[in-house]
Amino acid sequence: MDLEKAQNRIIDFIRNETGKAGVNGAVVGISGGIDSALTATLAVKALGKDRVLGIYLPESSLTPAVDSEDANILADWLGIEYRTIDISGIVSAFMDAVPESKSADRLTRGNLKARTRMSLLYFHANQLNRMVIGTGNKTELLLGYYTKYGDGGVDLEPIGGLYKTEVWELSRRLGIPEPLITKKPSAGLWAGQTDEAELGISYVKVDEVLKMLEKGAEHEKILNAAGISAEQLSSVTGRIERNKHKRKVPPVPELY
Ligand SMILES: Nc1ncnc2c1ncn2[C@@H]1O[C@H](COP(=O)(O)OP(=O)(O)OC[C@H]2O[C@@H]([n+]3cccc(C(=O)O)c3)[C@H](O)[C@@H]2O)[C@@H](O)[C@H]1O
Ligand SMILES: Nc1ncnc2c1ncn2[C@@H]1O[C@H](COP(=O)(O)OP(=O)(O)OP(=O)(O)O)[C@@H](O)[C@H]1O
Ligand SMILES: [Mg+2]
């Protein structure tokens, strides 16, 4: 990939889409992770620092302190307006109102957190006449590795054409502070969660696999070239298949 060209296209995309929508700017959830860091950086290049609001949305009992430091470092580096809203009280009020949620599995509870963050970002977008800028990369979008209407509930996906490994490359090129680039990717939905452990494969390998699948390569060839197990490959293809619905608008029955 020509990263210079990709960067310019993404910047134009953000400028054009927000311009067409007639909004005043962007709202981005800043987690201290690299996807949001790159997205916010490109949004600032497209719109200027005064039109990008970054919101850090920790859960006090769970989010590691390093995320707060990294989110702060990024916001300072970009010079954007930055707010912090703790989601713990909202999530626990939900749990109190829905008693069975306390015994729900960690995935169901985790998705609730992602959807709580989405609601807070849209609150600000509504108030300020801005768009919610998503941070999904191509790897996540292909795998459906995001919460439907949670972190997937956004107005634009500017880095949705970049594989995760390309997110790292472009981030280095733009001089994003290194600790955010080397940090292990995590959705932060439960204690100790990391993307690669949950997916059962590294991002380097999964990107290799996704690129080969995109070119229509045979599974046998992919197994040999990527050096992964048949179980890892079927887990990847299973995710793609299972999560196809996330990339469609909800179906409507034909009545005539
Ligand atoms: N065929 C179908 N057609 C239409 N809708 C269908 C469907 N199958 C399920 N559904 C709906 O989709 C729901 C399941 O999807 P969803 O609610 O998204 O839940 P699900 O895909 O099960 O879980 C989200 C995954 O994304 C990961 N995640 C979330 C957030 C952030 C990040 C990150 O990297 O930062 C990662 C998370 O760790 C988990 O692995 C079902 O409850 C149902 O409502
Ligand atoms: N604590 C948080 N504060 C604000 N936004 C958050 C928080 N956690 C998640 N989000 C939002 O959800 C998005 C999806 O999370 P995801 O983990 O995929 O991206 P990331 O944290 O930016 O990067 P990484 O994959 O390196 O962890 C984030 O980019 C961010 O917009
Ligand atoms: Mg993260």
Automatic annotation (TrEMBL):
GO cellular component: cytoplasm
Binding site for deamido-NAD(+): 115, 148, 155, 245-246
InterPro entries named among the record's database cross-references: NAD/GMP_synthase, NAD_synthase, NH(3)-dep_NAD(+)_synth, Rossmann-like_a/b/a_fold
Pathway noted in the entry: Cofactor biosynthesis; NAD(+) biosynthesis; NAD(+) from deamido-NAD(+) (ammonia route): step 1/1
Molecular function per GO: ATP binding; glutaminase activity; metal ion binding; NAD+ synthase (glutamine-hydrolyzing) activity; NAD+ synthase activity
Keywords assigned: ATP-binding, Ligase, Magnesium, Metal-binding, NAD, Nucleotide-binding
Positions of the NAD/GMP synthase domain: 8-250
A Pfam family hit: NAD_synthase
EC id: 6.3.1.5
Example of a GO biological process term: NAD+ biosynthetic process
Amino acids binding Mg(2+): 35, 140
Function summary: Catalyzes the ATP-dependent amidation of deamido-NAD to form NAD. Uses ammonia as a nitrogen source.
Family to which this protein belongs: Belongs to the NAD synthetase family.
HAMAP family noted in UniProt: NadE_ammonia_dep
Subunit structure of this chain's protein: Homodimer.
This protein's name: NH(3)-dependent NAD(+) synthetase
Gene that this polypeptide is encoded by: nadE
